[in-house]
Amino acid sequence: MLSSSTSTLRLHQPNRPHRPHPAAPAAGGATHLASPLRWRGHAPGAASLAPLRARAQRIRALDAAQPFDFESRAAGLLEERQRLKIAIVGFGNFGQFLARNFARQGHTLLAHSRTDHSALASTLGASFFTDPHDLCECHPDVVLLATSILSAEAVLRSLPVHRLRRNTLFVDVLSVKEFPKNLLLTSLPPDFDVICTHPMFGPESARDGWDGLPFVFDKVRVGDCPARRARAEAFLNIFEREGCRMVEMSCAEHDAHAAETQFLTHTVGRMLAMLELRSTPINTKGYETLLRLVDNTCSDSFDLYNGLFMYNKNSTELLNRLEWAMDSVKKKLFDGLHDVLRKQLFEGSPHAPNVSSSNVRK
Ligand code: NAP
Questions:
Q1: Probe ligand 1: pick from 216, 217, 304, max atoms within 8 Å of CB?
Q2: What is the pLDDT of residues 42-91, one digit of tens each?
Q3: Which pTM was predicted?
Q4: Phi then psi for 194, rounded to 5 degrees?
Q5: How far apart are CA 146 and CA 197, in angstroms?
Q6: What are the boundaries of each domain within the chain?
Q7: How many angstroms separate the alpha carbon of residue 5 from the centre of ligand 1?
Q8: Is 328 helix (H, G, I), strand (E, B) or coil?
């Protein structure tokens, strides 16, 4: 049985990070228990007691270390189980950005892209494969699709998925969600698991870490067996450990919201960029927010922005509403201006136009 896609927004309760236990307590505990012996070591005739003392010290140190040792071994085992072999397909700006954090958490990384990024990959400890057959033959636990929205279909079709393990987990991080969901469901064998995700941040906006930033996911298809559920959780846990705000949401809901949160933001950022705004000596806070918006949005590729438009059916309506909003604001201004001009031109009273207050807003 497969877990089905969700239609309502649920906030995922994060399992807080399984941070490694500090090494200090074991050593500290042993020192503490052994201290009376050390004190006795200064008594007369201590030499004859030396072998006994050494044995007791060994035993006490062992006793003291055991609980800590057990805990740290259990934590180590858990860490081991959470560790994944992840193949990133599309090793561009965003793929590399994700890889840095994956590598820091100790996952094994493989990468494949149109361009040869092998030098960069090796700095992250990732193995780069120019041939997707070689990548698939490494049998990753997870294949992460991080290619551009526009190229996703062609890239997916170029993967020899028959070389992968029979129930590999596929995850995408595309900024639109209904399109990759349908693509993955129709292109992959039915035994593959599918999770559609969207980290709602990027290299610019998450320069200082991922803590508190939203991570949207939809477990589109996860096989109902413990190992497959555990693998899905281990993948999601990567983002929980970084402190992301985990938001479980259907792909359709994501796209409806993202037209506003993302496409609108990017469109306004790109419109402002056309104005070539510059910093001035009298910047207000509002103006600085606009300058930052230009930086945040225009550092992403135009392909990404174009993908937000082409593959989210809600974007066209958003563009229409944006135009309508601009026209409405202009109309309000010009209506007032026309009233003033009419009075000046035809009623001959330049200083006291009796303009209705409802037409001119401050
Ligand atoms: P992008 O321009 O959307 O994608 C660049 C990636 O697509 C590179 O790996 C590039 O490969 C590959 N690519 C482009 N055209 C291709 C083609 N014709 N054939 C094969 N591969 C092609 O920029 P991005 O910022 O790296 O985004 C990657 C994905 O992450 C996108 O789906 C985007 O929506 C998503 N995402 C991005 C952000 C962000 O802040 N940047 C945030 C969340 C999600 P090469 O490098 O090998 O040329």
A1: 304
A2: 333 444 445 545 554 554 544 555 555 666 666 565 577 789 999 999 99
A3: 0.77
A4: -135, 125
A5: 11
A6: 82-249, 258-341
A7: 25
A8: helix
